[in-house]
Amino acid sequence: MSGLAMACLVAGQVVVAAPVPAASAPPSSADELPLGPASLAERRTSREVAPGVTHVAIERGQSSSDDFWTVTIGVATTEAEAGELEQRIRAAGYEPRRDPTAGPSPLGPGDRPLGWMVRVGRHADQPAAQAAANELAAKGVRGSVQFTGEDGHATTGPWSADVLVVDPRRFRGRLGSELATQIVPGRETTSSIARRTGALAAVNGGFFVISSGDGGKPGPGLAGTDGDLAGISVVRGDLVSEAVNGRPALVVPADSGAGTAVRRLTTRLSVRAANGDHREVTGLNRKPGLIVNCGGVGEAYPLALPAHDYTCGNDNEVIAFTPVFGPELPQGDGHQVTLDGRGVVVAVRDGRGGVTPARGTVLQGTGKGAQWLRDHARRGEHLTLRRSIVDAERGASQPVRPQTSIVNGGPLLLRHGAVALDPVRDGWSPQDIDGADRGAFYNGWYLRRNPRTAAGVTRDGKIILLTVDGRRPAHSVGLSIPEVAQVMRGLGAVDAINLDGGGSTAMVVGGALQGVPSDATGERPDGDAIVVLP
User: Which residue of 152, 162, 439, 522 lies most exposed, with the fewest beta carbons within 10 A?
Assistant: First the structure.
């Protein structure tokens, strides 16, 4: 964590003791990013996009001669795991090396590293490292090519960042979320969303499902409806997707952005039959049985806590579908009920599928949920759907008005001016789940540097949207999650949240994509975006 404020880990939460920077103006050339040595060169270019909207492009640092390309065979969190990997490497005729991870395990004990990256070779460029990886694979030892400047340890960069600052006191347009393709299924690039909406600027939004097309199954990774938002989403006052309960989200209550806040949110959904019987509705506008990022309700397995990039299951669900889901409902076994706009049952069927009505709601049940619908939802009867959003920290209802937008994200980065990282609570625990290696996932996603997108609020109510390029060593090495928190704090945010990053990271200003996408195929289609409209 070279060049950053010193931090300590207490009960899984990083706490930084340092003064809060002033937040009365957009980031200036005098407020250097807290990345690398203070002596690094930094260049900033600022422009006013519209009254109350400022874009700042930042270039900092340069490549370090200490960084190189290597082949990582695996991440070990115990001596036994490291020894087994090293034995395999030596048996193939190579000499292994252990590089410590850039941070400790939030599960403890103490401040020892999470573990080691067990590696082979030092190479000047990526092709040479890839050739070495191919040789290893031919001898039965598979690994991944990585750049050590992305490990999260001390480096000189370089870094390339874009910052958008919206001042609600001067901005006269609309700040809010926009759904890709205007329905839940399908994805769209941030550039396309910006063009379609006529946005002055836009950044990619929250986490979403990237599906192979067959819907997938519970376990590591993302499964379900392609493009479905993997956490809470509210677009123009319409609740589109349920929360990963207790995880943070960005709440934009007004078109100007006034009152924007970072909140931990929970959704409560239920259906009430005419005889007074209640049933929990476990999801909204998603494929039954697949709960991306977990943290759901009901009989979810293997756990009910948040688990990022892991799909939990539930065999006994009632899922509600609204017109924003799009024309085609998920197909499968179970029971399905269609309600008109007044909540009256107008159609019932065994099996799930068909067409989403232009008005009203469809309830799909599986297992015990299907039986509840059979028992309580007959044609002509009335069902009452109830939906609410609760601030999990304050225990109070989160108001939603026609202009409200809510964008999912995580982890929480800052609270009241202090770094507030709690990876276990937010779903990044390195604890393995049903044999899935979450230690390696934690190292790669959380401790190592990647492209990042973040959002925050300053003490005087300005909104800061940040994108940082990554996975392009000569251009930008990206940020670790602890570094994202420090950068947002250095930019003046007092509350901040991480949004979707990696290949999803994108900022568009004045119709032009800023920075360089990390995917070889270019800008990645996303599930939603935060737009700044005139």
Answer: 522
Q: Dump pLDDT digits (tens) for 53-71.
A: 999 999 999 999 999 999 9
What is the pLDDT at residue 12? Answer: 33
| pLDDT above 80: residue 26 | no
pLDDT at res. 212:
67
DSSP state of 444: I
pLDDT per residue over 70-96, tens digit each?
999 999 999 999 999 999 999 999 999
Phi-psi region of 474 (alpha: psi -120 to 50; beta: other; left: phi over 0): alpha
SS3 letters for 454-472?
EEEEECCCCEEEEEECCCE
CA–CA distance, 153 with 488 (Å, rounded to integer): 19
Quote the Cα angle for 336-338-339, to 5°.
140
* Size (the chain), residues: 534
Do residues 70 and 90 lie in contact, with contact meaning Cβ atoms separated by under 8 Å? Answer: no
Mean pLDDT, rounded, for 418-442: 95
Residue found by looking up tokens 């509705």 in the block: 281
Residue 195 gets which letter from DSSP? Answer: H
And the tokens for 207? 């986490």
Neighbouring residues of 483: CB distance < 8 A, sequence distance ≥ 6: 1, 4, 35, 152, 449
Cβ neighbour number for residue 309 with a 10 Å cutoff: 18
Q: Report the sign of the C-alpha dihedral through residues 362, 366, 369, 374, in that order.
A: positive
Q: Give CA 330 to chain center in angstroms.
A: 24
Q: Report which of 177, 282, 176 is spatially closest to residue 527, judged by C-alpha positions.
A: 177
How buried is residue 374: exposed, middle or buried, by Cβ count under 10 Å (0-12/13-18/19+)?
middle
